[in-house]
Amino acid sequence: MTGSGFRPVFHPAGHDHALRHALQDLRAGRWGAMARLLDDTPHWDGWTRRTQVLATVAAGTDVVHAWRAEDPDSAAAAVMHGRVAVERAVRAHRAGHARTRTLWQEAWTACREAAGRAPADPVPWIGLLALAALDARRHIAEHRVRPPAPMLPPGPWGLLAEADRRDPYNREAYHRMLQFVYARSDGPLSEAVNYVQWAASTAPTGSPLHALPLYVRVERYRRARGHEHALDLHWVAEDAIREARHAMDEWFLFCAVPEASPLDLNHLAHALYGALHFTDAARVFEALGPYYTTLPWADRVPRPADRSRAEEVFLRARARCLAG
Q1: Are residues 101 and 138 in the same domain?
Q2: Which of 85, 117, 259, 266 has the fewest CB atoms within 10 Å, i.e. is most exposed?
Q3: Is the pTM of this model over 0.85?
Q4: Is residue 198 part of a domain?
Q5: Is residue 289 packed enough to be buried (19+ CB in 10 Å), middle (13-18) or exposed (0-12)?
């Protein structure tokens, strides 16, 4: 893994080999492995992560539709239907598609139906949170609820509370809320900073929410049009180092790596590398194994869409840290 022949692997399943098999089955137009995988997923964190990854592939197919047709009583199929509908609406919104509003309404209905079919499941509420980011002007009343703490903006706090009630500190739920905060403001990121600091301060030890501030720091760098400066002052500022150390000490040292988000691990490796904490960064790179995500490395290059250049930055950072 540390030699010159190392090649990073970009795969949404990361260390989850059972999920990888289900994705292969899904791409072949079959839903059986997906159904069995979800049936064998006992915890909400794994359930949330797996349904999200499955939906990114299923959204381009009619496999979930076929599953529901053959097994109409399946609550898991209803939840996946909501997942797929949300994914399609979000993609349409991002692309400025003319059918965005229709897909948004279909997704909202699908999530509400799934919530009724699976009342203990946080995922339908996470889907509604994802849709809230499409309502940047907060036209819908449930998207402008009073916040739970000072310095936080009004937003879909009731939806977050519903997800929290079913799975406290659910990683995706809090990331979806961050996307809403981003969507409602094109100006300074002070609201996002306040939000992630609040979330991290309330999260228990071992929670991936301690990595949330790392995402806002990358967003600040991206908006400032910072480019390929490997040891940019942005990353060695006192607060940047503090955020990286906090994520290391409060999350990484306690997390089960095979169940951790590859995106979180890449953000932490990136933050520690930028903070010049190469020894700690090496531990995260070793935990990652071959699994690489384009972000946040793509924000270090002049053209973020150039994946090959982003991969080069990742490889340089990894080699520098492991050399120590």
Answers
A1: yes
A2: 259
A3: yes
A4: no
A5: middle
